[in-house]
Amino acid sequence: MKKALIIVDVQNDFCEGGALAVPRANEVIPYINLLMEENEYDQIVLTQDWHPANHKSFASNNGRQVGESIILNGVPQFMWPDHCIQGTFGAEFHKDLNRDKVTHIIQKGKNTEIDAYSGFQDNNHFMKTGLDDFLKYHEIQLLEIVGLAMDYCVKFTSTDAVANGYVTCLHFNGTRAVNVKPDNGKDAIYEMIQKGVTVLG
C-alpha cells in the first residue's frame, strides 16, 4: 500500500511569534522531521495557507473584531487576524522544518471570497486544490497527517481524506490545536475518530 505524509501549514504565522500562533506549535517540528527521517513515504506533501491580502476571512477586511463570526458565501466564517499573506515571511514554511524529501506543495485559501481549511478543497466545497488528483495519480492509498492546527486545517484535511477514500491516520504528537475555546482540540479528535480517522499515540 503506497503511503504519503501530509504536512499541514507548518508556516511562520502559525508558529511561535506568528500572527496566528498556535500554542506549542514549534514542538511538532522535530517530531515531523523524525517521521520523515525514520519512515519511507512514497510522497511527502506540504499544504500552505496562501491568502491574498484582501481575504474575506480576515477581521480587518470586514470591519470586525478577531473572534467574531460572519456568514461568508453561505457558510459560517470565523474572523481571523491577517495571516499567511502571499509572499510574506508569515506565509513561508518554518525554517526548522526539513523539506529535503518534500515532493509536492499544495497552496490553499487563494480565493478572496472563501476560506479553505482543508488541503483538499475550499470550505464551500466548490473548488478542489488538486491534492486528491495528485495522490490518486501516484496511487497513494494511505495518508499520515501532521501539522497545524488540529482543530481547523488538520481536522478538515483528515476528514476529507477519509471522504475521498484514503486510509487516514493522524499523528497526535505531530499536531497542536488553536483552542479558540478550551475544548476545541479534544472535540476535533472525537470528530475525526467518528469520521474514520485513526489517531496514532
Topology, element by element:
Blueprint: E1 2-8, H1 28-38, E2 43-49, E3 69-72, E4 75-78, E5 104-108, H2 131-137, E6 140-148, H3 150-163, E7 167-176, H4 184-194, E8 198-200
Helix pairs in contact: 3-4
Beta-strand segment tally: 8
- Roughly what fraction of the amino acids lie in strands? 15-25%
Mean pLDDT: 97
**Biggest beta sheet summary:** 6 strands, parallel
Mind telling me which CATH architecture this is?
Answer: 3-Layer(aba) Sandwich
* Rg, Å, rounded: 16 Å
CATH homologous superfamily annotation: Isochorismatase-like
How many DSSP helices? 4
EC number: 3.5.1.19
Keywords: Hydrolase, Metal-binding, Pyridine nucleotide biosynthesis
Domain Isochorismatase-like: 4-199
GO molecular function, one term: nicotinamidase activity
What does this structure look like?
The chain has 201 residues and is α/β, with parallel strands linked by helices. The chain has a single domain, classed as Isochorismatase-like (Rossmann fold, 3-Layer(aba) Sandwich), CATH 3.40.50. The protein contains 4 helices and 8 strands. The strands form 2 sheets. The protein has a 6-stranded parallel β-sheet. A two-stranded antiparallel ribbon has the order 3-4. Strand 6, helix 3 and strand 7 form a beta-alpha-beta unit. The longest helix has 14 residues. The two termini are 22 Å apart. The mean pLDDT is 97.
